[in-house]
Amino acid sequence: xxxxxxxxxxxxxxxxxxxxxxxxxxxxxxxxxxxxxxxxxxxxxxxxxxxxxxxxxxxxxxxxxxxxxxxxxxxxxxxxxxxxxxxxxxxxxxxxxxxxxxxxxxxxxxxxxxxxxxxxxxxxxxxxxxxxxxxxxxxxxxxxxxxxxxxxxxx
Length: 155
Ligand code: HEM
Prior knowledge:
Cyt_c_oxidase_su3_a-hlx, single chain, about 5% strand, transmembrane, membrane, cytochrome-c oxidase activity, DUF420, 5 helices, mainly alpha, two-stranded antiparallel ribbon
């Protein structure tokens, strides 16, 4: 594993952790263990936030990694990556809405949004792991370049 692969490994672990916490939190809500539900969901949200912070700092300071596989496969990979990014973005907006509804104690709405948010988050985690496997395990070797270098030259 190169030094470039350490941060994505950590950030992908945080998406997986947050999806596991959301699954546990959902189960706790169904069992009406609501205080525990709150704590576990907040831990899930913190874990998602850590993923985002690591991912963004890597994008700016280290860079994004290009597709390392064949040219024929590249459009499929990019389509899949796009799908994952859309899911993650929608999941983040739904997650913030779900949290806001909970803190405003609008629990009937929170419950409806929470179910959709959780399902979106499961798919975000699954597709995130698949992107990680494709980019770093199955087809390693793509070039990594910081956004700052792309914008201002150098590197
Ligand atoms: C992003 C984080 C959260 C998600 C994804 C989430 C998700 C959910 C889901 C899916 C349910 C419905 C369970 C079911 O019946 O199928 C639920 C219920 C509930 N959640 Fe959350 N939750 C989150 C955070 C919170 C927080 C921070 C609180 C407390 C401030 C909270 C309080 C509740 C309560 C009281 C219910 C029961 C609502 C009812 O049955 O009327 N949740 N949540």
